[in-house]
Amino acid sequence: MTSAPENGTPGKSVTSQSIDQDEDAVVIIGSGAGGGTLAYELTAKGIPVVVLEAGPYLTHDDYVNNEWESFNQMAWLDPRTTSGSWRVARDFPNLPAWIVKAVGGTTTHWSGATPRFKEHEFKTRSVYGRVDDANLLDWPIGLEDLAPYYDRAEKAMGSTHVHGRPPLPANNNYKVFANGAERAGYKFYATGPYATNAEEYDGRPASIQDGFNFQGDKNRSKWSILVREMPRAEATGLLDLRPDSQAVQITHDAEGRADAVLYLDKEGNLHRQAAKVVCVAANSIETPRLLLLSATPRFPDGLANSSGQVGRNYMRHLTGTVWGHFDKPVRMYRGETMAGLIGDESLHDPDRGFAGGYYLETISLGPAFMAAFVEPGAWGPDFTKLLDAYTNSAGMWIVGEDMPQESNRVTLNTTVKDVNGLPVPNVHYDDHPNDVAMREHAYTAGEKVYGAVGAQSTHRTPPYPSTHNLGTARMSERREDGVVDRWGRAHDVRNLFVSDGSAFTSGAAANPTLTIVALAIRQADYIAEELKAQRI
Amino acid sequence: MVFPAKYPSLNATEMTEEARQTLIRVLRVAFPHESVPDGPYERTADTILTEAQNETWFRVALTQGLLSLNQMADGDFRTLDDESALKVLRRVEGTEFFGFVRRTAVLNLYDDADVWEALGYEGPSFEHGGYINRGFNDLDWLPDPRVEFPVGETMPEMAQGAAGVPRPVAEGHTTDSTNQPGATSSDMEEVKK
Fold first, then answer.
1. Order of strands, edge to edge, in the sheet holding A341-342?
2. Contact at 8 Å (CB) between A397 and A360?
3. What pTM, to 2 d.p., does this model score?
4. C-beta separation of A403 from B177 below 8 A
5. Structural domain of residue A434, as residue ranges?
6. Which PANTHER family does the entry mention (chain A) (predicted)?
7. What's the burial of B178, exposed, middle or buried (CB within 10 Å: 0-12/13-18/19+)?
8. Is A344 within the bounds of a domain?
9. B110 and A368 in contact by Cβ < 8 A?
10. DSSP state of A257
11. What is the 3-state secondary structure (H, E, C) of A270-326?
12. Is A118 at the interface with chain B, CB within 8 A?
């Protein structure tokens, strides 16, 4: 599919396949890294699916090389509220998350870093031990369960540095970053792993280093659901894709099995799609919101919420940015945004004063986003100095594990309604002392890296609205500790699955997309087997 | 209503040219860039004025705010030097008026091709073939670094003895949660006979 088929009937399929709304279908809610992967993997096995996507069908031709124009084109801008002591609640009170509302979800906006989880990051409760006020729990699976699916995900996404994929070349921002890393005593730096082609692969061309990753890659060199999974799923003839279709409730029958999904089309009409399996992959804010909106007398606290953990343990990664200002030009905006990673601090070393680890990754913003995010709320000569240094600036982002906390949670805010009259999600977040200690350590490390190559000044930028949203319907061995089991299947509802980052039991240091994709491939295998054996 | 009658300018639906000039001066002082020409500041001021027209509350706040600047300047804000003007703006930093001006300015001033050029940013690049042949790696004041991880070495996952050391304790922690069974720090705090 090369152009957006926006002329279809509202709330109906835009592909050649159309499944009757009364037919019990496999219904996937969301078409991002989790839902899009699941849709492709299931249709490839001969299983027809209905995909409900809240956003429009944007294509590569629609993407624009302009930060605000692109943001307004694809960002999830439905009203949300925030609370808690995190700075995002003060700086961006109605924008807790920076994610995408479009076919392909946030894989449109993601930049491409694909590190794997480490073995111990599946066992945080056992390895980190008791961390006060953290709700740590070991995953019900380990690296050994996921390793083969990591392989499949990396091959699907074309991750550099693995499976024979060559590394990307060093761009300007990386040259500063890597030289600084070397001189600061770090060893494990590289331009990846990164799911953007250094050379043609899988029908996708090599990167032209245009610097627009966050805005959707017009060149199709970056892996996204839109460039790989969606067209292939459609080619099976088994994909019924319904853009501009926002799920608002999952209903159940007398036995407590999910039996349909109610959704709104772009004109506000309510539809009902009958379902034999429902997979929720709506990102970690909308997934719990949907489960909470689906409360009934049988599930009074929300669907699949007998544990009370739906919406809790919201994680967003540590995050933070360090900018270095030099006396010579860098021009960090030229080239792949995040093709640079330092892994030395990603280990677990409690001697640093905190549990878990973090990566440092290159990042670049244009002047428009730099002005909005570099020091929110600031103005005056100190602020404009940061922008005057633009040409000579290098940037790095901190991605570290934040602690799951029961009180960090997504709830329904019944005092604020969205355009459809539904309560908006409220996102509450307080930094854990472990998060604060790690961020301080990471800022200092970043300053050391830039200082080592002669930075004249550095600047610490606080966390942006969250792109890594995790943990609000977490996996657990025991049903009282979490929402879904080792397959992402709800403990309480046998034919309900969670297929996105909400299922993460802990966040690890790694960027989450690779793990979301690996989990979705694994889940697709499981769902296919269960369907075949008629156990669902 | 007494207030609008006493100050008829508050009811003006159109901003005066003087008010516009004051606003441009506010933007120059609040977001000083020597290299940025007047055009972007004027366009940003016009954007703010347009947005203010659409919201009564913003219009009132903006009208009052600009008038108050002249009062605080003991005359005409536009005649103050940079330093004095900055001081005046610091005094109104917390007002609705200034917050509206600042937010709108940050979103619009830097989304302007003239500003990009002044700051050294090249804007859209896909239509020019990206930077693959236009300097994505032209930085020459540092050596070319390696792009792969060191050969034959494995990134450490855990520090030696990481599992054996005392665990980090959060300050001011409250109570145990049901998912965190085990020893708590309070076990050591009270000794009973």
1. A189-190, A341-342, A358-362, A393-400, A321-325, A457-461
2. yes
3. 0.94
4. no
5. 25-532
6. LONG-CHAIN-ALCOHOL OXIDASE
7. exposed
8. yes
9. yes
10. -
11. EEEEEEEEEEECCHHHHHHHHHHHCCCCCCCCCCCCCCCCCCCCCECCCCCEEEEEC
12. yes
Q: What is the predicted pLDDT for the residue at B123?
A: 97
Contact flag A65-B127 (C-beta cutoff 8 Å):
yes
Predicted pLDDT at A496: 98
Residue numbers in B near A128 (CB within 8 A) = 167
Distance from CA of B7 to the nearest CA of A (A): 31
Window 61-100 of A, Cβ < 8 Å to B = 64-68
pLDDT-derived band at A483 (thresholds 50, 70, 90) equals very high
Rounded to 5 degrees, what angle do the CA atoms B11, B12, B17 make? 150
Nearest to A508 by CA among A196, A223, A136, A23: A136
Residue A194: inside a domain:
yes
Quote the pLDDT of residue A3.
45
**What ranges do the domains of chain B cover?**
16-119
Under 8 Å between Cβ of B132 and B139: no
CA closest to B179 among chain A residues:
A135
The confidence band for B163, taking pLDDT boundaries of 50, 70 and 90, is low
Would you call A335 and B131 a contact, using CB atoms and an 8 Å cutoff?
A: yes
With an 8 Å Cβ cutoff, is A354 touching chain B?
A: yes
User: Of chain A residues 443-472, which have a CB less than 8 A from chain B?
Assistant: 453
* Confidence class for position A428, pLDDT limits 50, 70, 90: very high
Question: What is the number of structural domains in chain A?
Answer: 1
Q: Is A483 helix (H, G, I), strand (E, B) or coil?
A: coil
Asked if B170 and A355 come within 8 Å (Cβ–Cβ), the reply is: no
Residue with tokens 């967003």: A316
Tokens 């207030």 locate to B3
Each residue's pLDDT tens digit, A229-280: 999 999 999 999 999 999 999 999 999 999 999 999 999 999 999 999 999 9
Query: In this structure, what token pair is assigned to residue A194?
Result: 């990164």
Residue A6 placed within a domain:
no
**Yes or no, beta carbons of A347 and B33 under 8 Å apart:** no
The answer to whether B111 contacts A190, with C-beta atoms less than 8 Å apart, is no
Spatial CA neighbour of A528 closest among A43, A23, A27: A43
pLDDT of A208 strictly over 50 = yes
* Chain B interface mutation, best of A209, A219, A364, A480, highest count of B Cβ atoms under 10 Å: A209
Query: Chain B contact for A221, CB < 8 A?
Result: no
User: What confidence score (pLDDT) does residue B16 get?
Assistant: 84
Do A190 and B148 count as a contact with CB atoms less than 8 A apart? yes
For residue A177, give both structure tokens.
Answer: 């970053």
When pLDDT is averaged across residues A411-424 and rounded to a whole number, the result is 96
**Which residue from A294, A343, A214, A286 is spatially nearest to A469, judged by alpha carbons?**
A286
pLDDT per position as a tens digit, A179-197: 999 999 999 999 999 999 9
> Model confidence over B79-104: pLDDT tens digits?
999 999 999 999 999 999 999 999 99
> Is A46 part of the contact surface with chain B (CB cutoff 8 Å)?
no
Hey, is the C-beta of A174 within 8 angstroms of any chain B C-beta? yes
A274: Cβ contacts below 8 Å, ≥ 6 apart: A21, A22, A23, A24, A25, A259, A260
Which of B31, B81, B149 to probe the A interface (max A CBs under 10 A)? B149
* CATH number of residue A97's parent domain: 3.50.50.60
Inter-chain CB proximity B30 and A379 less than 8 Å: yes
**In this complex, do B168 and A453 lie within 8 Å of one another by their Cβ atoms?**
no
Instruction: Tell me the per-residue pLDDT of A361-397, one tens digit each, with 9 for 90 and over.
Output: 999 999 999 999 999 999 999 999 999 999 999 999 9
Which of A132, A136, A481 lies closest to B169 in CB terms?
A132
Residue A7: inside a domain, yes or no?
Answer: no
CB pairs under 8 A between A and B: 234
Which residue on chain B is closest to A220 by alpha carbon? B126
Structure confidence at residue B176 (pLDDT) = 53
